[in-house]
Design brief:
This protein is an alpha/beta fold. Among the domains are: 192 residues, 3-Layer(bba) Sandwich (FAD/NAD(P)-binding domain); 184 residues, Cholesterol Oxidase, domain 2 (2-Layer Sandwich), CATH 3.30.410.40. 26% of the residues lie in helices and 21% in strands. The protein contains 14 helices and 24 strands. The strands form seven sheets. Strands 1, 2, 10, 11, 12, 13 and 24 form a seven-stranded mixed beta sheet that branches. Strands 7, 16, 17, 18, 19, 22 and 23 form a seven-stranded antiparallel beta sheet that branches. Helix 1 runs parallel beside helix 6, helix 1 runs parallel beside helix 14 and helix 11 crosses helix 13. The longest helix is centred in the C-terminal third of the chain and has 18 residues. The radius of gyration is 22 Å and the shape is globular. It starts with a strand and ends with a helix.
């Protein structure tokens, strides 16, 4: 076999791609090439959990995308960080491990068949997981992905948050990935031994010891190569050279919800009008490529507190030195956690069949940001706390499309946030609940005043204007190459094969048939796990 020929080529070493690379190379039968546009994840601020604030605007590890001006956000451009590094967005995210609601996978099963329904998905999750809380009928132990139960070193205000939630009618949930998601508690994290447990750390790094796996970083894929209807390779640039790698079995796209549709379109697969406008010859027409973009929108309400928060330990130099020393010596303290110490799920209407809103509790505030850096390590000079929320299943849809044949040019991202009345009314009800939660004795007793949006914002119109002005992505774009049986409404079939083409699959969050009601890192790794199973079955 020639040096540039492999059984499988995986484009993208993100949450799904890392899992794919591990599983496809595991039995030693197949040669696997992984192409990653970013560089190595060997960076201190990647591995220190709270260090992701330093990565938010870092072009060395981040695509730094911006959306088109969005009418739903009062005409503002939204900033969309996406991982450009081994591990993808799992190397720069907030590390919250949420599978989603059982009914989300019932939805997937209705669309993709029993292999994507809850029973099969639960089996896969339990095989993936090594949960610190221990195995049961819902959770796995002994798998490759360690998941922290996140019960130590939490800020004392988490107890107030949980007590307030119970007073407001929510259950205290110990495990949001257990039998019941709805309620309030602390989030489990992809953190192991005080270090971020990204998909690269858990799956790719162990696999890179194998002789049959090759990982090429700083390799920007420019197109999939076809012979007739069959994908036979990938063209990419690396160190100033244009290189062609051949795939004797399959090309698998795992670039995520932005880069995967971009590469499909660069390869001539997509809406003919979009392709022709960008100067790309149409190889295979499918107007669903880049369409159906779905993402969670969220915002924070912020209060000045009467008790200490993380602000006073993370802002001054001596506080940073103190927590830094603690982290380096013991792997513990605030730097070893996500900033989201608590959270939960609730329904804005009790008649709804499942939770439709997600909560986030942050024992810090950042109303006075530091220019050029997400201010996780430079919070406000007063005691402050934020409560956030995001919608679980928005009905607004956007799209992602290339602007030219240049693979280095960012695609146009049109989010269309709050473009349906459903999403507007749902968020209006949600922010009212947030204030109801804050009014419970356990929180009200330690709050001095509401700072954002402020007590003067009361009417429905004012609340809507506020969340349009202050909302933004919570970094969960999905569905832009979605799965489905019907080629007229999807890009790939339930076995992740691109409709109408051979030797080409998509396996990442772009393949989600619907957006999961929760954080998307766990479902993306699930996609890689089950995708590998499918590929191995087909090449047994």
């Amino acid at each position: 076999m020639a040096e540039n020929s492999y059984d499988f080529i995986i484009v993208g070493a993100g949450s799904a791609g890392c899992v794919l690379a591990n599983r496809l190379s595991e039995n030693g039968r197949f040669s696997v090439l992984v192409l990653e546009a970013g560089g190595s994840d060997s960076r201190f601020f990647i591995h220190m959990p709270l260090g992701y604030g330093k990565l938010f605007y870092n072009p060395a590890v981040n695509w730094l995308y911006q959306t088109e001006p969005d009418p739903g956000l009062n005409g503002q451009r939204d900033f969309w960080p996406r991982g450009k590094v081994l591990g993808g967005s799992s190397s720069i995210n907030a590390m919250v491990y949420i599978r989603g609601h059982k009914s989300d996978y019932d939805d997937w099963g209705d669309i993709g068949g029993a292999d994507w329904g809850w029973d099969q998905v639960l089996r896969a999750y339990r095989a993936i997981e090594d949960t610190e809380a221990g195995a049961d009928e819902w959770r796995g132990a002994g798998g490759p992905l360690f998941i922290s139960k996140n019960t130590r070193d939490l800020h004392p205000l988490v107890k107030n948050f949980v007590q307030a939630g119970v007073s407001a009618g929510l259950n205290h949930v110990v495990d949001f990935n257990g039998p019941e998601q709805e309620g309030i508690g602390s989030y489990q994290l992809t953190v192991k031994g005080g270090r971020r447990n990204s998909a690269a750390r858990a799956f790719l790094r162990p696999a890179m010891r194998r002789a049959n796996l090759r990982v090429v970083t700083r390799a920007l894929a420019s197109r999939v190569i076809f012979e007739g209807t069959r994908a036979v390779g990938v063209e990419y640039s690396h160190k100033g050279q244009r290189i062609t790698a051949r795939a004797t079995r399959e090309v698998i796209l795992s670039g995520g919800a932005i880069n995967t549709p971009q590469l499909l379109e660069l390869s001539g697969v997509g809406d003919p009008q979009i392709l022709q406008a960008a100067g790309i010859a149409v190889h295979h027409a499918n107007p669903n490529v880049g369409a159906h973009l779905n993402d969670h929108q969220g915002l924070n309400y912020t209060w000045r507190m009467t008790v200490p928060t993380l602000n006073q330990i993370l802002r001054p130099w001596w506080g940073k030195a103190l927590v830094g020393a603690k982290y380096l010596l013991s792997g513990r303290g605030p730097l070893a956690l996500s900033i989201n110490h608590g959270g939960g799920f609730f329904r804005t209407d009790p008649s709804l069949p499942r939770p439709n809103m997600q909560l986030y509790m942050q024992a810090f505030s950042t109303l006075i940001p530091r220019e050029g850096e997400r201010p996780l390590l430079t919070p406000d000079p007063f005691w402050g706390m934020s409560l956030g929320l995001s919608n679980c299943r928005p009905t607004s849809r956007g799209h992602v499309h290339i602007l030219s044949a240049n693979p280095a040019q960012a695609p146009r991202i049109t989010a269309n946030a709050y473009s349906t009345d459903h999403d507007v009314q749902e968020m209006l009800a949600a922010v009212k609940f947030l204030r109801h939660l804050a009014a419970q004795p356990a929180l009200k007793s330690v709050m001095a005043e509401e700072l954002r949006p402020g007590p003067e914002v009361q009417s429905d119109a004012a609340l809507i204007d506020d969340f349009r002005a202050r909302s933004g992505t919570v970094y969960h774009p999905s569905c832009t190459a979605r799965m489905g049986r019907d080629p007229s409404a999807s890009v790939i079939d339930p076995r992740l094969r691109v409709h109408g083409l051979d030797g080409l699959r998509v396996c990442d969050a772009s393949a989600f048939p619907t957006l999961i009601g929760g954080n998307t890192n766990a479902p993306s790794m699930l996609m890689g796990w089950k995708g590998a199973e499918i590929v191995l079955q087909d090449h047994n």
